[in-house]
Amino acid sequence: MTNTKKLLLNDTFVVIIFAAAILAMPIWLDPIGGNYPDLLQKFAIYGIFAIGFNILFGLTGYLSFGHAAFLGVGSYAAVWSFKLLTMNVIPAVIFGVLFAGILAAVIGFLSLRRTGIYFSILTLAFAQMSYNLAYSVLTPITNGETGLQLARSDPRILDRLFSQEQAAGLPSTDLFGETMSGYPGFYFCAVLLIVCFYISMRIFRSPFGLMLKGIKSNQNRMRYTGLNTRPYMLTAFIISGMYAGLAGSLLAVTDPLAGAERMQWTASGEVVLMTILGGAGTLVGPMLGAGLIKYFENIFSAFDDNVLTQAFSFLPDSVLEFVVPVVGLFVGSGWHLTLGLLFMVIVIFLPGGLVEGFRRIYDYFKSGGGNAKTQSVEARNQAGE
Amino acid sequence: MSDIKKPGMSRRGLLKAGAVGGLVAATPSIFIKDAWAQEFRNDPKNTGELKLGFNVPQSGPYADEGADELRAYMLAVKHLNGEGDGGMLNTFKPSMLSGNGVLGKKVTYATGDTQTKSDAARASAKRMIEKDGVLMVTGGSSSGVAVAVQSLCQEQGIIFMAGLTHSNDTTGKDKRRYGFRHFFNAYMSGAALAPVLNKEYGSDRRAYHLTADYTWGWTQEESIKNSTEALGWQTVNAVKTPVGAGDFSQYITPVLNSGADVLILNHYGKDMINSLSQAVQFGLRDKQVNGKNFEIVVPLFSRLMAQGAGDAIKGILGTTNWNWSLQDEGSKAFVQSFGAEYGAPPSMAAHTCYVQTLLYANACEMAGTFYPPEVIKQLEGFNFDGMGNGPTLYRAEDHQCFKDVLVVRGNENPSSQFDLLKVVDVTPRAQVEYDWTIFGGSLGPYEVKM
């Protein structure tokens, strides 16, 4: 009894710390060049995406390679809500989550008949199908390669009901008058991220979460006890899909455009990378992984020879001429290379992701640099196989 | 796991709580700072530097064009800052550029990769605007990207000088007050190409279109269809192909049995290289259909693509915005300084990007300020010459440039590895002009609220 109470208190505390860290991002990301609205929004949005993915992958061990489909559906639903109903973001988010949930129910119902690699391939196939549909077959709905965009002549039924006059330019997305680009957009996403984090934590701690963990460790044994695991799996899959749909709709909220490439398999792979990089099955790991990848994508990819020459300007010219081209291979358009190397290092040496790394460091210092081994073995999370 | 964490958490929690307190205290000042500093976004004020954003494809099917665009931008920056031989600065008139930066400020730049994807292009444009503080965004080699970035720039109050974009939509239904296009468009290609096609292939032809499935492909197919059907041609079929497909054989095989005698490839970049090479490999050009030689037409042609396609382009007709072999003063000056810098002549993508940068810089000089609405007013209706295409007008109503269009043919006997296109006809500007109202759309406001 007392134990659970303590645990609950502790959870609240974790959420508060998490919320504080997220809301303070503009401050602590400033020194490393990450403090601008677009990147902050991406951190929060892909954080939601990764947290949702982790509910499926981290808890049940089912590796879905098709989560980008839900992200894309969320975006399309949100943009259509902007086009047809209103520029208010609330209906957009609701529709994004709803449609992603429906698609997840369908795909999940079919894919969850298989486990392991077959499940992964099935989800990948469905996602690729969705991508190709969005890319070329359903162009009236998705506008294909060009991407679905707002137009001044869109109906926007609800907005027209309340105000007759029309702005000269394109309207922007808003939350009851507050424009959803720039910092307000980030805070909106951040609040949703915190809520999502809380929900995910409650799922991890709930009997339902335990059931999912049971499925991960030995599904057959669960079945022998007379339990039908399918409904649990499907629920986890749908919840996870709805998280992705929320992330997709937020992408459209902060920037009202939906492109088909959001559904491509590379986007599905990205969220897998994020989760593994941060630590599958842990609460904050996926969020860390998402942040790291987005940081690389936006900051590292922008380094060009100019920036490098400035950064290494303390070196003598002869060394500089040698260093800049070599380092240049790993930044700019070569940022994928750096990310790949980092990924390899983490998977080989820290199978539990960044979270395991932090924990090892923490244990090391706690035990005064001595025998930290005994504790950390027990505390270590298992990598998702 | 939480038991082990606990003691550490509370210490960290204290620190974090402090950080939140700091944030709460700082939040008003963050907003206020922005509110007062910005008469307009990214005002360079007294910094002595002016930053431009070069957003070009560095990966994906149009990466070759992107690389050449970036070379042109760096050359333009050099010339604006008074380094190098000055290039077109010497021939551009009327010009207020003196090689002393812009309004006394040194020109610097930030670069980004569009990946030829609307999403990625917008993200990198946003990064340049929000983080690097660029005053103008330019570049791109795809109309999908141009349309997406242009509408972003309108929202942000940043001028967008489009790079290579050929769709009618860019200055048609998706035109924006903050977006400008120097490049020609699909309508002009159709208008320029039709008389030549009539002369070469006659008025009784059956055409089969393969079209890149996005805004550019759609409008080019429409424009070419309209102008060829006006000649009396029939359109047998028009098939959309995904961008970056790589293998086009499944789309080319049906052409053989369709009864068509002309294949029109509405493809660009590596897509065009692949589809054209495959069409030639399949023996389309050696065929006789309806008693006539089978012909292939590539309405939008570039030297970079010709280089990629090798022998396949010999004898193929198309249009381009500009070619390095032109003999006017502006073109010669540009080719000379580009060649001296990079050892190869510039492509038409490089040309349009270079010209766009100079035009923007000159408009700032003319306006005497970087304040976007004033700069826009200088560009609208601006008449200029000496930039390689003869007398050119930036039409105020749709921000489209009007100039002569080149009809070219793949060179049968190239004298060098760059001498791949032969100019067949220079279609005068008057012949490609059109009423701006036919494409609809509206420019939107000058003032953008921050």
From TrEMBL, chain A:
Organism encoding this protein: Sneathiella litorea
Membrane topology: Multi-pass membrane protein
Keywords from the named record: Cell membrane, Membrane, Transmembrane, Transmembrane helix
Compartment(s) where it occurs, according to its Swiss-Prot or TrEMBL record: Cell membrane
Superkingdom, taxonomy of origin: Bacteria
GO MF term list: branched-chain amino acid transmembrane transporter activity
Membrane-spanning intervals of the chain: 12-31, 43-65, 85-110, 117-138, 185-204, 231-251, 271-293, 337-358
PANTHER family in alphabetical order: ABC TRANSPORTER ATP-BINDING PROTEIN (PTHR30482:SF17), HIGH-AFFINITY BRANCHED-CHAIN AMINO ACID TRANSPORT SYSTEM PERMEASE (PTHR30482)
Protein's recorded name: Branched-chain amino acid ABC transporter permease
From TrEMBL, chain B:
Keyword terms of this UniProt record: Amino-acid transport, Signal, Transport
Superkingdom of source: Bacteria
Any one of the GO BP annotations: amino acid transport
Pfam families: Peripla_BP_6
CDD domains: PBP1_SBP-like
Record-annotated Leucine-binding protein domain positions: 50-411
Family statement: Belongs to the leucine-binding protein family.
Protein name, as recorded: ABC transporter substrate-binding protein
Taxonomic classification: Bacteria, Pseudomonadati, Pseudomonadota, Alphaproteobacteria, Sneathiellales
